[in-house]
Each structure stands twice: as structure tokens, then as C-alpha cells.
Design a protein that fits this description.
The protein is built from two helices and three strands, in the order βαβαβ. The chain has about 80 residues and is α+β, with helices and mostly antiparallel strands. It has one domain: Mth169, Chain: A (2-Layer Sandwich), CATH 3.30.1280. A three-stranded antiparallel sheet has the order 2-1-3, covered by helices on one side. It is elongated, with a radius of gyration of 16 Å. The termini are close together. This is Phosphoribosylformylglycinamidine synthase subunit PurS.
Length: about 80
């Protein structure tokens, strides 16, 4: 068994209202120095050793993300 992480983020040109809401709230809560916040999704998958990188990319692109507005990164942890 191996562990894989897939991080999905809005593409840079896509507005991120949730990230903007967090960025606007931080100074009101006393946190300064934060200039931008982007909010994404984080998935952890336990996979069999036989699952290859191409299959993981197809899962990330076709199921975990919307490739029109999101980018993803797949990382094997073990």
C-alpha cells in the first residue's frame, strides 16, 4: 500500500471568492502581513502498489478536479 496526495487549486486567472473572504477577514482578526489567500482541495488516497502515475493523473484530472478552472499536483508519499 502507498499513500498519494492530490492537491487541487483554482488556476491563477480564476477568481477565488473563498480565498478572498479569508484574506479580508485576517486583518480584522489581528493577523497582518498576509497578502493573498487561495483555497483549494486536498485529497489523500491509499493505493495498491500496481497503480501507476498515468492512472493517478487520470483520476485527478477526470474526477478530483475540474481541469477547465483548476490545476492539480499528485505526490506519492510512500
Amino acid at each position: 500500500m502507498a499513500r498519494v496526495v492530490v492537491d487541487v487549486m483554482p488556476k491563477p486567472e480564476i477568481l477565488d471568492p473563498q480565498g478572498q473572504a479569508v484574506a479580508n477577514a485576517l486583518p480584522r482578526l489581528g493577523f497582518t502581513g498576509i497578502t493573498d489567500v487561495r483555497q483549494g482541495k486536498h485529497f489523500e488516497l491509499e493505493i495498491d502498489d500496481g497503480v501507476d502515475d498515468e492512472t493517478l493523473a487520470r483520476i485527478a484530472e477526470g474526477f478530483l478536479s475540474n481541469p477547465v478552472v483548476e490545476d492539480f499536483v499528485v505526490r506519492r508519499l510512500s
